[in-house]
């Protein structure tokens, strides 16, 4: 998990007495998610430049309730420097529901700010529907996704900094594939969800003005503007988009290794950067999605937003994550109720 060392060095500031002269409840309107080292920090700076505020990362929605937060590493420890709060505020924040958590956190971290907030945590992408379900007050989510070759390069540099990038990718290959596909599977059921906006990193960088309009209309009802002030975090310090980042992998990875990455992640071909690659490797996704949608239609099930015995469940996600269930052409809800729960399969 990446950390901004410049921000981490800042001293934790004293906290105000938030029990006096209370402002209206502070709440998080949107979550920002995506692949680690895949553009979420850039996206957060765009939101900040357009009237939103947040700390570095949060991660509280990875638990079923705020009281679970102390067990969620590394986010529990990262919250103190990332939001510049003290332990007393953190303890108070988890003694209630998610609305209480965000109100306590935002009021303490940004006592003079009265605008909208967001929670940027890349890992939310891996369980997007569950996260949205846990905090009903959220207006929605923005998910920024990136070509697997770029994600592999960026993550491999962090995982094995002493190796060449190609060697680092090869060393960590299986883990990188699992993580990339897990994030894809955990979010793709919401591709048509009106509460969720998917943003392709490469297209965002090369068509910034168009995407600022899309994101602004989605999140605020009006086009966003370009960043005009210095970014808070050093890894996106420039106010201009770096077009070289969209195809950096072409200069680093051998063609054969690029093909190996695309072949191994072909289920997620929708996220590939180039139209030729999306076409060449798109058959698997077309087959899986078509079969899954036919099965959902047969059993009159929605793609997401279902419940099984009170538990949040996503029929489409379940079918994509477990190809044996899809191949058997059985009702995913009944499969989870009779077998999946006891087998510890994920409901969403």
The number of distinct β-strands equals: 6
Structural class: alpha/beta
Round the Cα radius of gyration to an integer and report it: 21 Å
| SSE succession | HEHHHHEHEHHHEHHHHHHEEHHH
Low-confidence stretches: 1-19
Amino-to-carboxy terminus distance = 23 Å
Helicity, as a percent range: 40-55%
Looking at the structure, what is the overall shape? Answer: globular
Strand order of the largest sheet: 2-1-3-4
- Global mean pLDDT: 90
Please state roughly what percent of the residues sit in beta strands, choosing from under 5%, 5-15%, 15-25%, 25-35%, 35-45% or over 45%: 5-15%
Q: DSSP helix count?
A: 18
Report on the biggest sheet.
4 strands, parallel
Keywords for this structure?
single chain, 348 residues, alpha/beta, four-stranded parallel sheet, two-stranded antiparallel sheet, 18 helices, 6 strands, 8% strand, disordered N terminus
Secondary structure elements and pairings:
Blueprint (H helix, E strand, L loop, with lengths): L4 H4 L19 E7 L5 H9 L26 H9 L3 H7 L4 H12 L7 E4 L7 H7 L5 E6 L2 H12 L5 H7 L1 H15 L8 E5 H6 L1 H12 L28 H5 L2 H10 L10 H6 L2 H16 L7 E3 L2 E3 L1 H7 L1 H6 L3 H9 L8
Parallel strand pairs: 1-2, 1-3, 3-4
Antiparallel strand pairs: 5-6
Helix pairs in contact: 4-5, 7-8, 7-9, 15-16
Q: What does this protein look like?
A:
The protein is of the alpha/beta class. The chain is 46% helix and 8% strand. It contains 18 helices and six strands. The chain has helices spanning 5-8, 40-48, 75-83, 87-93, 98-109, 128-134, 148-159, 165-171, 173-187, 201-206, 208-219, 248-252, 255-264, 275-280, 283-298, 315-321, 323-328, 332-340; strands spanning 28-34, 117-120, 140-145, 196-200, 306-308, 311-313. The strands form two sheets. A four-stranded parallel beta sheet has the order 2-1-3-4. A two-stranded antiparallel ribbon has the order 5-6. α4 packs antiparallel against α5, α7 (148-159) crosses α8 (165-171) and α7 packs across α9 (173-187).
